Amino acid sequence: MTDGQRKQIRRFLEDGVTTINLDTFNFTKEEAQQIIEKGDLLQAEMNTTMGAFLKKYAIMDQGFGSAIKEFDLTVPADYNHDTIIDDQKKKLKKLKNTYGYNDDLTSTNFAKATNKLVPGKTYKVKIFPILESVTSEDCMTFLKKQHAILVGGQGVLLANDLKGDEFPIGKWTVSFDEKESLWKDSDGDHRVPDVHRLSDGDRVFNLGIFELDWGGGVCLICFCDK
Asked: Is 201 strand, coil or helix?
C-alpha cells in the first residue's frame, strides 16, 4: 500500500464516521456515558470490525479475472430497442446452430432495461470470466467498478448478432441489469439473460436466476463508453 492510498482510505473512514448521526440511536445520558467510559474497548472492536470490512472489499474482485475479450461494437442506425429481443428471437429460432431458446426471453419481459443502446454509437465491450462462486450482488459491484452501462438482454443479443465470434467457447455469457429491471418469473425469481456458445458452434439462449450464485463456467459481458 502506498502512502497516498493509505491517506485516501483513512479519509474515507474519517468522513464516514463524521457523517454518523448519533441522534438516530436515541442513547440516554447514562448509555452515552457508558460508551465514553468504554472508549478503549470500543476503539479496539472498531479496529477489528473495520479490518474485516475493508478486507472484504479488497478481495471482492478475486472472483473475477481480467477481460478475456475486448472489442468495439457499433450499434446499427436502424436499431430498435423496443423490438430487438423479439426480432432476434425470430431470427435465431430459424438458425440451425440455435440449440435452444428460452421463450421467456422477450422484448416485453425485458422492457425495463436500465439503459438503451444508442443507434450509431460505438461502445467498448469487455467479457470477464468468473473464477469462483460469486453472488449476483458481487457481479453488480464488479460491473459498476468497470463503469459498465447495463443493457440487459438487448445488449447481449445484439453483441451475439454482430460479434458472436468474440463470445468465449464453452461458457455462459451473462448480461446483468439492476434487479428491479429484470423480469420476475412465477416463482418470484429475477431472470438474467445469457448466451452459451458451445464448442461445436451451436448456441443456447437462456435465462439465469439472479437469486442464485454464479460459478466458473460463466462470463460477464460489460458495455462501456469508449
From this structure: coil
pLDDT band at 160; cut points 50, 70, 90 = very high
CA angle centred on 134, ends 206 and 144, rounded to 5°: 85
Query: Rounded distance, CA 119 to CA 4, Å?
Result: 42
77, three cell numbers: 442506425
Confidence at 224, pLDDT banded by 50, 70, 90: very high
DSSP code for 8: H
**What is the distance between the alpha carbons of residues 190 and 19, in angstroms, rounded to a whole number?**
34
- CA–CA distance, 22 with 41 (Å, rounded to integer): 19
Q: Give CA torsion, residues 180, 98, 172, 120, to 10 deg.
A: -60
Distance (Å, rounded) from C-alpha 117 to C-alpha 98? 24
Rounded Cα distance between 32 and 26, Å, is 10
State the Cα–Cα distance between residues 115 and 19, nearest whole angstrom: 32
